[in-house]
Amino acid sequence: MSSRTIKNRWKHRNKILLAYSDKSGSVYDYPNLNSAFMVGRHPVRVFHEDLIKIPKGSVLFSLPERHPVFYNPKKNDFDSLTHSIDGQEIWAVSSFLSSGYLRTHLPAYQKKKNAPILPLWAYTGVVIIDGEFFVPALRVDVDPRSDPEQHQNDYKLGIEIKNLQKKYPNNRLIKQLSFCSKEYRCLCARNFFLSRFEAPLPTSQYCNARCIGCLSYQKNSGFSESQIRLNFKPTPDEISQLILHHIENVDASIVSFGQGCEGEPLLRGKDLAKAITIVRKKTCKGTININTNGSLPKMVKILIDSGLDSIRISLNSPTSKYYKRYFNPVNYIFDDVLRSIEISLEAGIFVSINLFFLPGFTDMESEVESLFSFFNKFPVNMIQTRNLNIDPEYYLDTIGYIESAPIGIKKLLNLIKKIFPSIKIGYYNPPKERMYS
């Protein structure tokens, strides 16, 4: 699926119009219908206060074999729209938001019996106002590291890639990041070559979880991989060479193990510890971070003792049963994850939770209660809010969730800020210089 183009055929000043797609991928607005969004499995009405103009860098998707849903005031209920005014069958439309934004509502649709499971993207509702796309979302981090304006520089990028490959001709990790920056347009890899912000450190071929939303490898799942998983083991020397280059050339620098193109970095913890030790013998500058599932608490302790500065541990839920049904852990349990968080907090390093958000699930009352109980026990420094990349219905079916009333994503964030004011809410790993600001 790819970006779509709008063909606006009516003018309804400031009116929220339903967006739909024909089978060729063109997007239209539909007159005189009240748009709807979804939270969990339930359609809700759309209001102006929920909307922002679609952020630059976002894209649109058609949702095959899914008809858009609208609010019918005559029935005070919701209906699906199956055909356009011209009599052609139509599909619902979704947006995929650029980095730094959190969705608050899902697209509303009625699924046909033969509808395929959607690919691994984060689906957000979209409407049209005065010929422009609007989405239910809010910016959660003003850091510009992934903003489109920062990445309109392919010519300069190509020069810097050649320079670094010449400087480090035998470093396979730099060759890997070169591939990622060009083939996948990985923004982190691009930032490394452009000597700014955060540098990625993919190091692990394998994983000890079988996440249903894994972007790099799922055996016989039917899902297409977003990127091919790393297929070699960078040595401690290769890893430390990359870290030192970035730290020495970037102010307020950060480097991170654990990327979307690899498995679980803790499985290579001993080699990562060696690399960190090499770096820390030469400099105390820079922030060394790990993005991890937190499955091996003893290895977390080894990395901290070697000089790790911060850790980000991923959760889809603080509720054990939902965690297990999403992550499908292999040779570890949820208590190991909690122990890794506890060890990190006791050591005094900066601790973030990478929390996967799905409107209607993350903000339902029972999950909010579990989340607040978790924060009371584990006072982490930051929540990194992530839109969960998965077909919403497939996710809810797979984890077998027991529904309770949602309070709304915006209300949830406001409550966290009020009840836990010391917890930072954002999107990106912060460097030391900005961890507590």
Quick overview:
The protein has 11 helices and 22 strands. Strands 1, 2, 3, 6, 7, 10, 11, 14 and 15 form a 9-stranded mixed beta sheet that branches. It has a 7-stranded parallel beta sheet with strand order 16-17-18-19-20-21-22. Strands 4, 5, 8, 9, 12 and 13 form a 6-stranded antiparallel beta sheet that branches.
What does this molecule look like?
- With 437 residues, this protein is an alpha/beta fold.
- It has two domains: 12-139, no CATH class; 148-434, Aldolase class I (TIM Barrel), CATH 3.20.20.70.
- It has helices at 154-167, 172-183, 187-193, 236-249, 269-282, 297-306, 320-327, 334-347, 365-377, 392-399, 409-419; strands at 6-7, 17-21, 27-30, 34-39, 42-45, 51-53, 59-63, 66-72, 77-80, 91-96, 101-103, 106-107, 109-111, 127-129, 132-139, 198-201, 254-257, 287-292, 310-315, 350-357, 382-387, 424-426.
- Strands 1, 2, 3, 6, 7, 10, 11, 14 and 15 form a nine-stranded mixed β-sheet that branches.
- A hairpin with a 2-residue loop joins strand 14 (127-129) and strand 15.
- Helix 4 packs across helix 5 (269-282).
- The radius of gyration is 22 Å and the shape is globular.
- Residues 1-5 have low confidence and may be disordered.
